[in-house]
Write the C-alpha cells for this entry.
Amino acid sequence: MNNRLRELRTASGWSQADLGEKLDVSRQTVNAVETGKYDPSLPLAFKIAKLFDLPIESIFIPGE
C-alpha cells in the first residue's frame, strides 16, 4: 500500500521519532509504514488520519 505519510510528516516539520511519539508507536514503526514495509492496523490508520485531519483514503492509497 502506498502512502503520503513521509510527505505529511515532513510538511509538519516532525521527525519520525516525533510522529511516533504523537501516535504512541516507535520510530521504527513510522519508518516501516513510510517505506511500505508495514501496513498499519486500522486503529493506527485512523489515528494517523485524525492527527493530520485528513480522510484515511487521502493518506493511504491501495497498491496494484
User: Anything to note?
Assistant: The first helix runs from residue 5 to 11. Residues 16 and 30 are 6 Å apart (CA to CA). The beta strands are 2-3, 60-61. The chain is about 60% helix and 5% strand.
